Amino acid sequence: DPSSLIPAASAPPPAAPPPRSVPSLLGGVLAVCEAAQRDAFPSAAAAVNIAPTGRAGADYQNNSALALYGTMKAAGALPEGVKSPRDVAERLAERMRAHDREAIFAKVEVAGAGFINIFLSERWLAERVKAIVTHGVLPPPSRQLEVVVDFSSPNVAKEMHVGHLRSTIIGDTICRLLEFCGHHVRRVNHVGDWGTQFGMLIAHLKNVFPNYSSEPPPIANLQQFYKDAKLLFDKDEAFKKTAHEEVVKLQAGDGNSRYAWEQICNVSRREFEKIYSRLEVDLQEVGESFYNEYIPGVVAHLEEIGLAKPTDEDAEGRCAKVIFPPGSKHENPLIVTKSDGGYGYDSTDMAAIWYRIFELRADWLVYVTDAGQGPHFDLIFEAARAAGWVTQQRLDHCPFGMVCDEHGKKYKTRSGEVVRLVDLLDEAVHRMRDGMEARRVEAEASGAYGGRAPNMAAEEMDHASRVLGYGAVKYADLKGNRNSNYNFSYERMLDPKGNTAVYLLYAGARISSILRNAPVTPAQLVAMGAAVELGCEEETALAREILRFQEVVEDATATLLPNTLCEYAYGLCGQFTKFYQVCRVIDSPQQNSRILMLSALEGVLRKTYRLLGLGYLERI
Ligand code: ARG
């Protein structure tokens, strides 16, 4: 019966799938302006130029008319009746209104010599806020890329220092941003697990723990172990000889040496893990050793294409192979083979970049290290380009400044030693916990709880102090522009009134508590079809700030600058405070609209904190 193929009239239309991304405000404005320009001046190929703030209280400004006029005039292609940039602006503005299908604009106004002021519609802003409650906090749209982020990357048996901590924290946030935007991200820990130092470490291991092959060596302090081995290496000729033999055996793949090497790496790995698990950072270890088998082929290729060249012979008649990338401003070359035939840091990074481009097929490579390695990565990128490996790929070295103490000196303990990272993190948590305990005692004494028990159990307090303490360390690291040095200070990073994670988490908890105490939930309001209404200045300002989220994510991702996200989080909390000073929520006539607004705000804050690697506390 053919009629059975026709759906019954009563069948509901298939529901539209929920959106997976949402254009930023700027993206939405840009799309309309581009359509308008194509329509008004189809033959003029000039980029649309939108500034994020306009005059006279406008939200955005379209500044395209002047350049457009210039381009068309130079080409002798000015249309009939267009005599000035202002005429161009008038035509653009008219088309912008026509193309504004979603009614994004409240007003589009030509000003001055040909600027176009754009005022967003409050109705539209209100709907976008509501959409956050309905669909969740969505990323801006982007084409999925394959990204490799090389970060953290400490060295086996040497200390993992504050620089590695910075790389771990900054790299993790960059990965979170890229993942949120829908990219496929490989979080690569390029651990320094290879090199000649392993000769002396293995030799020392075999001396001190001859049972290493049947039981894991009980090395309590690998740094000390390294120092002891180095001391022997420097003064004991026989030991030095054994160490050299061990390097040769290791590189030749000798089973025992390889096993000993693994044992040493394991000890280090366990130490690194302590940091990663405290910080909840996910990393895939692909250490230097992994690229070893690729190096000879890569070097041979670089020689074949004439990029790697032998140096002059040294006194013993040996020569290294080096690359001076054409046009480089650096005087030092990359050393792809040392004069003794061995490979080093440069060789490994050439093999690694080759592997990431050709085997992993990455579109985007990001390396997060201290600024001191800038010249190294310049050379690696220049050499890869000169070799013709780089077509569409984006290559970024993402440098960061030093960690200093309050006086601007390199961060060390009182006795001048390197600070153990585990201790540093634990210290932040302890201080937070002590502060909470002191406040609790104080509040209890002053009767702040009205004679009732304090509102937090010990485990909840432990959990909160971990979220606050680790969050504080991370945020302090992220909030400055990463290119500058930053001064480490517990007092400053734990200050609940400063621009700190502690402040942000308290603000979040305050918002959550308002929502928790509301007589109706956001979900109920959505089901009821309640709307967001922007009645006063503070409400509109808060809505705008909430809706800037996608723009900020786009910006932070494109520039790989997490501080943009910190500034946003801090500004958003400030905007909330202004709102809350004048806008009552519960039991106000605008209650339902304001609950929806706070629910959107809570969603955006949670997401922003997540991107920064911070936890979230419903209550503190
Ligand atoms: N292990 C190096 C260090 O501690 C950082 C490695 C960075 N990544 C790279 N592909 N070179 O300085």
TrEMBL record:
GO terms for molecular function: arginine-tRNA ligase activity; ATP binding. Its EC number is 6.1.1.19. SMART domains: Arg_tRNA_synt_N, DALR_1. It catalyses: tRNA(Arg) + L-arginine + ATP = L-arginyl-tRNA(Arg) + AMP + diphosphate. Coiled coil: none annotated. It is an enzyme of class 6 (ligase). Monomer. NCBIfam families: argS. This is arginine--tRNA ligase. It comes from Prymnesium parvum (Toxic golden alga).
